[in-house]
Amino acid sequence: PGDLLARAIGMGVDTVTISGISELKEKEILAYAGVKARNSLPYLDAEGMRTRLRSVPMIRDAEVRKLYPSRLAITVVERQPYALWQKDGKISIVSADGVPIDAMHDDRYAGLPLIVGDGANERLDQYRKIIDAAGELTPRLKAGALVSKRRWSLYTTENVEVRLPEIDPEAAVQRLARMQRDYRILDKDIVALDLRVPGRVEVQLSNEAASARLENLSRKTKGKV
User: Fold this and answer.
1) Cα distance between residue 172 and residue 219, in whole Å
2) pLDDT tens-digit readout, 150-195
3) Of 10, 70, 99, 162, which is most buried by a Cβ count within 10 Å?
């Protein structure tokens, strides 16, 4: 009854102004907020609308204002897609604060950084620092996997696994960048680099490279007999 009377005296919601959206659509905002044709401004629950909007994963913050006599202004701050998070075989799009905001439906966000593993989305800040420390190596890093919620392994575009230490992984990545600059280590026939022990690098050769190395050593041994 209150809404009916308010609309009768010119205080219905005649205009809704929505600002701050880029990923979401206006009709989605209206649906999430719960704006109905029967609403009137005096009886509209602006705080309830704000709460409903803020419960949407894509929305980080929202403001709902009544502008009498008949206008409603909605302002939202969207969470922006920042990375892809793979867990249990499923890929989600996450924002910079690690909140999953959508499932991966197509290749629209295929160029975003990929993180893998339980809790990896909660450690995005650390992963960002690791990537920053990689410098010129960054384009060659295609994914980061959080292992046992403790440390990161990086995967290069050549599918080389780089195992980083739990403590100061950024320094280890800087060391990797120096080794690549000086020795082109990532261009070798290898499948893994272990940098978990300070001052030491363990290299795992590919099966082909390991076989060739054993054969070469065997020939050298026979030559000495």
Assistant:
1) 36
2) 999 999 999 999 999 999 999 999 999 999 999 999 999 999 999 9
3) 162
pLDDT band at 208 (very low <50, low <70, confident <90, very high): confident
pLDDT digits (tens, 9 = 90+) for 9-20: 889 899 999 999
- pLDDT band for position 6 (cuts 50, 70, 90): confident
| Digit-coded pLDDT (tens) for 48-101 | 999 999 999 999 999 999 999 999 999 999 999 999 999 999 999 999 999 999
Q: Which of helix, strand or coil describes residue 221?
A: helix
Sequence-distant (6+) residues with CB within 8 A of 225 are none
Give the end-to-end CA distance of the chain in Å, rounded to a whole number: 105
Cα dihedral 44→49→51→57 (10° resolution): 180
Instruction: Using alpha carbons, select from 191, 198, 141 the residue that is nearest to residue 166.
Output: 198
Residue 136's alpha-carbon distances to 30, 140, 151, 219, in angstroms, are 45, 9, 22, 39
d(CA 173, CA 205): 20
CA atoms within 13 A on the CB side of 131: 21
How many Å apart are CA 120 and CA 106, to the nearest integer? 22
- Secondary structure (3-state) at 219: helix
